[in-house]
Each structure stands twice: as structure tokens, then as C-alpha cells.
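Look over this one:
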Amino acid sequence: MSSPVLAEVLRPTARVPARIYDAALIAGFSLIVALAAQVSIPLPFTPVPVPLQTLAVVLTGALLGSRRGTLAILLYLAEGFAGLPVFSMGRAGFVHLLGPTGGYLVGFVAAAWLTGFLVERKLAAYLPGALLVLILGHLVPYVTGVAWLGLSAVGFPKAFVLGFLPFLVGDAMKVAAAVGVLAGANILGTKTVQRRQAR
């Protein structure tokens, strides 16, 4: 494949303007992230819920690429800041960015960009590289998330305990699921290219 990003491989060859195609993907994936954010399990000992959202964010970058993936997450944040209940557990508003979990939202933008950037460079073409890319994508939100949680709420040692450690098992499961999705995307992309070449 000339491009490892599924969105590029599946781009219609005729009659669909590039801007319309890209805009539809960006809007669609912002909604997927919003829906995934509603699958969150609150924990009694931490202000950070267990979300399905990070899986959606990382796959947004991996499937759309760095530019479209970043724009999709920025659109998702804009929807939440505008008052739509798209953040975890139906929350909304700019004040959510200033709360204890606001750093994770900022990290989502970086995670989508980094994952897309690495996939574009074909680092996820094989299983070891895909694992590395997806693990990095899941870790990025913790950098800003734990830092902001520590600064704004509980202090850094406690932020690490409350904002990172409880989620490692869940993230391992999400990485495994993301590897499966990415493998399926690679197969679909390869078959699409082969069909087009056979015409």
C-alpha cells in the first residue's frame, strides 16, 4: 500500500471531493469518541473514571492519520466546550477542562496526532510495531492527565496512584482490542488496493 492509513486507502477515486470526504470522517470520528466517552466506569477512590474513550481516541489517529485524527479530537473538544454532553458520563462545558480530569482531554489531542504520525510512517505494519504505537498512544494522555491532576487537585505522588495505576489492566485490554482493529484495517486496506489494481 502506498499509504498505511486506512482513510487514505479507502478514499473514493472519483466524484467525492476530498474536503467533503475528510470532513465526513472528522465529524464521524468525533461522534465515535463522544459515544465511547459515555462508556465510563466511575471509581470511588479517584476522580478519574475508567473510560472506553482512550481506545476510540487512539484508533481515530491510527485510522485517520495525524491531521484528520487531530482535527477529529479538536472537534470533539469543541463540541463539549459548546455545551454538548460529549465528555465522560454526559458532562459538558469549558469548566470541564479546568477540572481534575482536564489534562487527559488535552492529552487526547496529542495521542491522536502521535498515533497517526507513527502509523503514517508504517511503524504499525507488523505486530511489534503496532503494539509499540498503540501503547504509546494510550500512555500520552497520562502525561498531561497525571500532571494536571497533581497540580490542580491531589499532588503528584497521589496523582500517579489515582490517575495512572488503576487503569493499567484496562489499558492493556484496550491495546489488545486496538491491535485487532488495526490488523483488520491493514487487511481491508490491502484487499482494497488489490481490487483497484486488478481493474
Q: What stands out?
A: The chain has one domain: 6-198. The mean pLDDT is 91.
